[in-house]
Amino acid sequence: MFDLSQVNHLAVLAAAVSAFVLGGLWYAPPLLGKIWMREAGIDLAKAGHPARVFGGAFVLALVASYAMALLLGPAPALRPALHLGLVVGLFLVATSFGINYLFAQRSLVLWLIDAGYHVGQFVLIALILGLWH
Question: For the chain, which terminus, N or C, has the lower number of CB atoms within 10 Å?
């Protein structure tokens, strides 16, 4: 069903790096990091080892980038790629987070930060895959 031989692996790698960098900026203390840590109840003194956290985050960004590449197919046109990135980020990922956050009684602010990142992540991944073929 999915043919990895048709995937531009360098574009996928670049998309994953871009998503990882976006997350680093998005969750940095000068931007949304301090608010996110407060809303999520994160205590940096008790957080997991940074190598495990960042390594795992990059692997997951790589998996998400491969998934988008497989959904888009080889040589996707830019506009449909961006549209799919928006649909995946906003209507699949953000709404799924919303369901979990409602049951976990997480704040709207936390959902907006996390959902906003994932919308941006999938649009950025789609942008790179739509431009690089």
Answer: N
CA 18 to chain centre: 9
When divided into structural domains, the chain yields a total of 1
| Tokens found for residue 113 | 């930060």
For 99, the domain range is: 4-131
Quote the pLDDT of residue 50: 81
Scan for tokens 């790096």, then name that residue.
17
Which amino acid is present at 59? V
Element (H, E) at 13: helix 9-26
Q: Quote the CA–CA distance of 115 and 30 in Å, as a whole number.
A: 19
Confidence (pTM): 0.93
Task: Kindly tell me if the per-residue pLDDT of 62 is higher than 80.
Answer: yes
Burial class (CB in 10 A: 0-12, 13-18, 19+), 4: exposed
**Closest by alpha carbon to 15, among 55, 50, 58?**
58
